[in-house]
Amino acid sequence: MRLTVEIWRQAGPEAPGAFEAHQIDGVDPHLSVLELLDALNEQLIDSGHEPFAFESDCREGICGACGVTVDGDVHGPEDNVPSCHQRLVHYADGSTVRIEPMRSAAFPVLRDLIVDRGGLDDVIRAGGHVAVDAGTAPDADAIPIPTLTAEESLDFAACIGCGACVAACPNGAAHLFAGAKLTHLAMLPIPSQERTRRARAMVTELEDLFGPCSLYGECERACPAGIPLTAIAAVNHERFLAGIRRQL
Question: Where is the 4Fe-4S ferredoxin-type domain (predicted)?
């Protein structure tokens, strides 16, 4: 099929940007959005023009690098699916597809479809890690963890840090992302030893860099890892517990 692709072109963070329209023939409807960009870039290179810059890595939906906005939808028209798995079967022959970077004040455009998502890294650096000296490797059964607890923790650990929740949120909030990290680590015995310090540090960084959460719920629909809205509640829950421990 034939598609008209309107793609955001921007030379740098301070440069003005605009959409460029290109036509692509012979498009297989089973191609992904990223494969469509590959085909367009090959066409541009062959004709001596500059290709569009965009990010991708694994193309298996687990790295979080490939996020773009397609026709106003973060990642694309399918809910809870990353950009690399969004297929063109939703478009008819002759359709126009508009592709642009993830839009959020917290994600400045670096070039074309690439944005700076370093704010998410700052939240992780603040406390989304384990710094406990655990000594030598313990036996596998030395610290029992109930199966359901382990499974639920892993469900929250599935967050790939793509930033879709931030781009989908009208406020540019990252509470789904931060809540997933806080919940995942709070449920496990060794990481939970730093629970208070982690909550204070991560929530402070979260509020400095991102917008407030107003419970719109758009983040849950956009999240390719299927992180539930209960992760948002964990932000205030962990903050509350950290405040109580400070007073004790």
Answer: 150-179
